[in-house]
Amino acid sequence: MRTESVILENKTGLHARPAADFVKKASSFKSDIKLIKDGSEFNGKSILNVLSMGAVKGTKITIKAEGADEDLAVSNLVSLIKSFNE
């Protein structure tokens, strides 16, 4: 299992387009992907779960992956989240 935390810095947080991009990328990995916000876990491969997190600017989220490609999954997903901040 691998985890890494990141702070959402973009002004709209993890809204529709970034959430869809995240789910698309997460779904490309074999590992089980979870997002953790305020102690609650959300399925990172489900658009409804990602949107229901209500992740706004300044939110700290932890990306957790468990499986064959967990290291690659976490590093790629963290980079994706950081790219939303630019």
* Number of structurally distinct domains: 1
Kindly state the percentage of residues in helix: 25-40%
Major sheet characteristics:
4 strands, antiparallel
What's the end-to-end separation, in Å?
Answer: 28 Å
Mean pLDDT: 95
Helix tally? 3
Give the helix/strand class. Answer: alpha+beta
Order of helices and strands: EHEEHEH
What percent strand?
Answer: 25-35%
Order of strands in the sheet with the most strands? 1-4-2-3
β-strand number: 4
What does it look like?
- With 86 residues, the chain is an alpha+beta fold.
- It has one domain: 2-Layer Sandwich (Histidine-containing Protein, Chain: A), CATH 3.30.1340.10.
- Helices cover 38% and strands 27% of the residues.
- It has a 4-stranded antiparallel sheet with strand order 1-4-2-3.
What would you say about this model in short?
This protein has 86 residues and is α+β, with helices and mostly antiparallel strands. The chain contains three helices and four strands.
Features of this protein?
about 90 residues, alpha+beta, Histidine-containing Protein, Chain: A, 3 helices
Give the secondary structure arrangement, pairings included:
Blueprint: E1 2-7, H1 16-27, E2 32-37, E3 40-43, H2 47-52, E4 60-66, H3 70-84
Antiparallel strand pairs: 1-4, 2-3, 2-4
Helix pairs in contact: 1-3
